[in-house]
Design goal:
About 65% of the residues lie in helices and about 0% in strands. It has about 80 residues and is an all-alpha fold. The chain has a domain at about 15-70: Orthogonal Bundle (Helix Hairpins), CATH 1.10.287. α1 (about 15-30) packs antiparallel against α2. The model is unreliable at about 1-5 (pLDDT under 50).
Length: about 80
C-alpha cells in the first residue's frame, strides 16, 4: 500500500477550462459537508490557487484581445458608458 497519493496537476499547468472544472468540483465537495477539517482547509487552499490561476489566464487573454483589437472596446461601448 502506497502512502503517496496522486496529487492534482498544479493550477498553472491546467487550461482555464480544466481549472474551472476542478474549482467547481472542490466547491461541490466542500458544500457536501462530509469533509474533515484538514481536507477542507487543503481544498480551500487549492481552490484559491485555482482561482488566482483563472484570474491570471483571463487577464492575459483580455490583454491579448486588447492588443489585437487596438483599444479593446467594442463599437458603441463608449456611448453606453456616458
Amino acid at each position: 500500500m502506497s502512502a503517496a497519493k496522486k496529487s492534482p496537476k498544479p493550477a498553472d499547468d491546467l487550461s482555464l477550462e480544466e481549472a474551472m472544472a476542478r474549482l467547481e468540483a472542490i466547491v461541490e465537495s466542500m458544500e457536501d459537508g462530509e469533509v474533515p477539517l484538514d481536507t477542507l482547509v487543503a481544498r480551500y487552499e487549492e481552490g484559491m490557487r485555482l482561482l488566482q490561476s483563472c484570474e491570471e489566464k483571463l487577464g492575459a487573454a483580455e490583454l491579448r484581445i486588447r492588443e489585437l483589437g487596438g483599444d479593446g472596446e467594442a463599437e458603441g461601448d463608449e456611448d453606453e458608458a456616458a
